[in-house]
Fold this protein.
Amino acid sequence: TLLSAAAVNRRWREAGRNDTLWKRETKKLWQGKKGTGTIEELIFWRSRFTKDTVSRLSKSQIFAIFDHPLLSQKKAMLKECDDRAKLERFLQVHMLDIISEGPEDGRLFFSDIYFGSYACSVMDAQREAISPAELCTPFGYDMYFKIPAEDVDEDDRDSLTKYDEAENILLYHHSTCFFDESRDFKIVVGDSLHSYHPMDLKWGWTDLGHRVQVGPYPPLTAARRRDWGWKLENM
């Protein structure tokens, strides 16, 4: 009886990890989310797969992982992987890189492609520390810069947003923003790229992964958004 129950449990477990099921669920989960991956392949860019699972990934699935803007430099290195073994090894090294910069749950690897992709994206959505790569990619983040209303000329106040969480505070809201290779602050407005800070202002961490400061301006605190994007806001 125990063996039969164990067999039933195993079959239920295997059914619960069915790739067709989890591919569909991953597509639903990713709708409207930022920083996930390509909807065509549904492979999360921070997925952690076992060696056997990597061997079952198609070439297009592996390339889909490196389609993410944060991995553009590594994607160029894929051209040097001229056979399957090198391709798999390249992905294994990439996963080790992710583990070294992540929390303890980074030690967990998945043996199912789409269940693993789903699970890794859900776990990553709980991450509260933004990486330097996420700060410095055109993928960008939202900027919320609060300023007392009394410090803004009356003629300019209509162009700012009222801050809902405090009285007499106005808000500069910019989306999308990022830092370039020179550490200059950039803002994307429509199809145009603008730089609003002097070239000699540099950014640095005041609290690694959580708070960044640009020149003499107040530190900006990073927070995760519901759409899995990032918001930087002065406190």
